[in-house]
What we know:
- This protein is of the alpha+beta class.
- The chain is built from 11 helices and 9 strands.
- It has helices spanning 4-7, 16-43, 48-57, 75-88, 90-110, 113-125, 241-275, 287-315, 321-346, 357-367, 374-386; strands at residues 130-133, 149-153, 156-167, 174-182, 189-196, 202-206, 218-228, 277-278, 281-282.
- The strands form 2 sheets. Strands 1, 2, 3, 4, 5, 6 and 7 form a 7-stranded mixed sheet that branches. The chain has a two-stranded antiparallel sheet with strand order 8-9.
- A hairpin with a 2-residue loop joins β8 and β9.
- It starts with a helix and ends in a 6-residue tail after the last helix.
Amino acid sequence: MVTVEELFAIDALLSGEEREIRDTVAAFAAQRLRPHIADWFEAGTFPAREIAPELGKLGLLGMHLEGYGCAGMSATAYGLACQELEAVDSGVRSMVSVQGSLAMTAIHKFGSEEQKQRWLPEMAAGSALGCFGLTEPDFGSNPGGMRTRAKRDGDDWVLNGSKMWITNGSVADVAVVWAYAEDGDAKPVVRGFLVPAGTPGFTAREMHRKLSLRASITAELDFDDVRLPADAVLPESGGLSSPLACLSEARFGIIFGALGAARDCLSSTIDYARSREVFDKPLAAYQLTQGKLADMALELGKGQLLAVHLGRLKDRGEISAEQISAGKLNSTREAIAIARECRTILGANGITLDYPVLRHANNLESVLTYEGTAEVHQLVLGKALTDANAFR
């Protein structure tokens, strides 16, 4: 019996350090997270404050960034870590992605030296949490339509607006908030603002009644005449390209992460099919079952090969936004298909939290949508292939 990784000789493509990082994260996830994840999912909660310092100790928060207490690991190593975290649950990987690829990356890429020194070491250690406020109630796929505004008032800025579907939002120590900055007669431009928790006029309300990403903290942020000093602005930010650059980092992690969820579904389903007897023989011994397993293994293996290839491109600084879109679209689309197919093999047992497949499938409904919906990434690829913009 072989695993998908063995079937496609994935380890032969990885360095010894990359395999060691992957295995270290897998061991931590198995010992610290997996025993509790079904209960967290059922309760609709996640102990972010408790888990973050442990993730920080492993060097997983902002692990692809250089300096300021960050591990400075390769993009491929970061992807492999995401894969092992999402093999437990998409909510866990989302928390790490938002902390490192969104909030920390925004500060690292666009912040002042003072902002970097103030926030990044604590965020890398997990003693401070961040969130990333871009999506609004009426503007998801079209972030350029955001209504949140920051108006100059003397040396200060006054922020008004709201953000929705913000991971870590109600537990974050600092929110990276994107808004149209209005400064006198100049044309408004999208800029990032650092808004510490507890700032007057800033409220974060946790969102409940979710059927997906339940083991994750999701919040709505409101800004009512929030007065911020001049140094709250990320000075190097300017234009919608700034938050989109951060999203590109997060999408890269999803390329690997979604495949971790798919792998967990497939491995648990194979174990089930080998032990479950139907009409006096194992379910795994039926041709229909083996056909399903073979097809899923093929798609998972192809996805892993693509993920590693894209990781190598990113490590060389050669990856394009279109290639990241291709990877994100493929991984999420195939992962959710695998999760759903695995559920059919498990039958009624597949709908319980005793097995991970429907939990993963529910989570992947969100992963398919966030950081750019599947349809958005189809249009990104369509534009690249035809040079015709079909977004409008």
